[in-house]
Amino acid sequence: MGAADIVPGVSGGTIAFITGIYDRLLGAINCINFSVLKTLKNEGLGAAWKQIDGTFLLALFLGMVTSIVLLSAPITYLLQNHPVLIWSFFFGLVLASIWLVGKQIKSYNISNTILFLAGAVLAYWITTLDVLQGSDNLIYIFFSATIAICAMILPGVSGAFILLVLGVYQIVINAIHDRDIKMLAVFGLGCAVGLLSFSRLLKWLLNNKRTQTLAVLTGFLLGSLNKIWPWKNKMGSAPIHIHSDGREEWLLQPVLPSNFEGDNQFIYALLLFFIGVALILVMSRFEKKTS
């Protein structure tokens, strides 16, 4: 999940969903409320820890933090220098996820089909949004984190891409590299507020409107494929945004591999695509066995 959330276009929520921990994750997050303080006071730390499924959350948190710290630099390097290859891998990963999530929908009636298409259109529209200038103002960072974390736990909607659209993606990456504790603390607080609020809505939807919710989430996955299509050409005569490190953001247009401006690396891209598909299928199989 940590590695996926680094990439603008891929959702950590997708990974949580296909590995079978999504419902448990939402359940654990929803248990973090004021009743925990009452349990802590009356029954002690052990009971409170068990109430919030603390061991599960700690393991997940440590895994994500470790992944982000270790992989943020190499993934950023790959995105800048070998974009076709890394996008091919994630395209295969997300495409296989559509099949895994979609097959959980009990019936594709008219209402579910409309919800599926609505989710796809919404996700596609999000991938076409222009990048904002952004700001390192701590209040702006807080609200950006609040919005982005909602996307991070939604399968098919990339929290990293939302950060990119809001213009704070590189700011957060730099804060991780520079160990900017103050900014990371504000970002973390924003994430906590957004997560605790939005997870309750998601939990209710999955408990009471599961099939319809799955239809929307599957649509999100489909619509997000536009963002992670490996072969894209630059549009316009100038970049739409230049990061502080000199990296340029351009408007990009998806094209066929044969129309790609540069080496399309088709054979290697195809290989990484199938590796992404295979990884999802293996993870799904493992999840079924462990269940």
Walk me through the structure.
With 291 residues, the protein is mostly helical. The chain has helices at 2-6, 12-18, 22-30, 34-43, 45-51, 54-81, 83-102, 110-127, 138-152, 159-166, 169-178, 181-208, 210-228, 266-290, and strands at residues 232-235, 241-242, 248-249, 251-254. The chain has one domain (2-290). The strands form two sheets. The chain has a two-stranded antiparallel ribbon. Strand 2 (241-242) and strand 3 form a beta hairpin. The longest helix is centred in the N-terminal third of the chain and has 28 residues, at 54-81. 34% of the residues are buried.
Structure in a nutshell:
By secondary structure, the protein is mostly helical.
Tally the structural domains.
1
* Shape field: globular
Beta percentage is under 5%
The span between the termini is: 19 Å
The number of distinct helices, counting runs of at least 4 residues, comes to: 14
Q: Would you tell me the overall average pLDDT?
A: 83
Oligomer: single chain
Largest sheet: 2 strands, antiparallel
Number of strands: 4
With strands numbered from the N-terminus, the spatial order across the biggest sheet is 1-4
Order of helices and strands: HHHHHHHHHHHHHEEEEH
Poorly predicted sequence stretches spanning 5 or more consecutive residues: none
Tell me roughly what share of residues is in helical segments.
Answer: over 70%
Which structural class fits the helix and strand makeup?
mainly alpha
Radius of gyration: 19 Å
